[in-house]
Amino acid sequence: MVITDSFVLINYPKTGSTFARAVLKEVHELQLADRSFTRKITDALHVTSKPFFEELMLPNIKVKHVKRPKDQHGCFCQIPHKYRDKKVTTIIRNPYSRFMSAYTYKWWQKFPPLKAELLEKNFPNFPDLSLDEYVDLMQMAMIHGRLEGKNIEGVGDQTVQFIQMFFKQPEKTLSSLSREYINSEKPFDDIADIHFIQQEDLNNQLANLLTAHGYAKKYSDYAKSKERMNVTEMSEDREKIWTPKALNYIEKNERMIFRIYERAGIHYSKPQL
After folding, report:
1. Strand pairing partners for 59?
2. Which domains, ranges and CATH numbers included, belong to the chain?
3. 72 or 205: which carries more pLDDT confidence?
4. Is the pLDDT higher at 137 or at 150?
5. 62 Cβ partners below 8 Å, 6+ apart?
6. Whether 219 contacts 210, CB under 8 Å
């Protein structure tokens, strides 16, 4: 989570948040360097404020058993009260490409989302899993990890994580989650007021964010021209990995996320087999 003078950036995993954090930090450093040249003037005017930038490492409240007590992916409910008046933004990504990126990046192999005994029993070939087996892993990880044994039908791992990260009272929402809730208007009342930036146009939209919050044009231009890092865009080979099971899982089980994005005017398409 990044805190600036006027907004908070929540780092949604696998969306380009590493790049965005780096750009914001570099812009902040450029602002400090630029102000050093005008220090005499600002001192004479008794201007002592500096551009504010803080990166918070917060307790991981999303997956209880994972041994990473703190990480950079803090949730809306973890924003310190003194910063609650700031605008909140996050980067989002097509749930299909986000799912595929997570599978091919293989972070789940280094940090398994299930306890060892469950992995050994249900996935004897772990970590060598097909995409369909990865779907099964994510479904089981949702139940035994994020939801701590609660078997909730009709909801996917990305949706549960989305609720944890962006809803005003995530635990209350998850405790009463149902198919009826997912298909109702209630999620639009329970989600926090968050501005979405799309990963697919990250440079331009990050630049627009800085402009909207009063940053000088030189800084928004810097964000617009900055070379991307850790890029995991869908390649032709990755497109060929898709299976009907994986596509149907995302289309059905992550439908609440698609509804929220569509309400914000953002439409994502389904890959073709």
Report:
1. 70
2. 2-263 (3.40.50)
3. 205
4. 137
5. 73, 75, 146, 161, 164, 165
6. yes
End-to-end CA distance of the chain: 37
DSSP per-residue codes, 182-240 = HTSSHHHHHB--EEEEEGGGHHHHHHHHHHHTT--HHHHHHHHHPPP-S--PPPHHHHH
Dist CA 246 CA 241 (whole Å): 10
Share of the chain above pLDDT 90, in %: 65
pTM of the predicted structure, to 2 decimals: 0.87
* CB of 116 closer than 8 Å to CB of 146: no
- Spatial CA neighbour of 207 closest among 222, 228, 194: 222
pLDDT of 15 > 80? The answer is yes
pLDDT one-digit tens code per residue, 222-266: 999 998 765 555 455 777 899 999 999 999 999 999 999 999 999
Kindly report the backbone phi and psi dihedral angles of residue 268, in degrees, each rounded to the nearest multiple of 5, phi listed first: -115, 140
Q: What's the rounded Cα separation, in Å, for the pair 134 and 157?
A: 12
Among residues 67, 92, 119, the alpha carbon closest in space to that of 202 is found at 92
Long-range contacts of 173-176 (CB under 8 A, 24+ apart): 174/147, 174/150
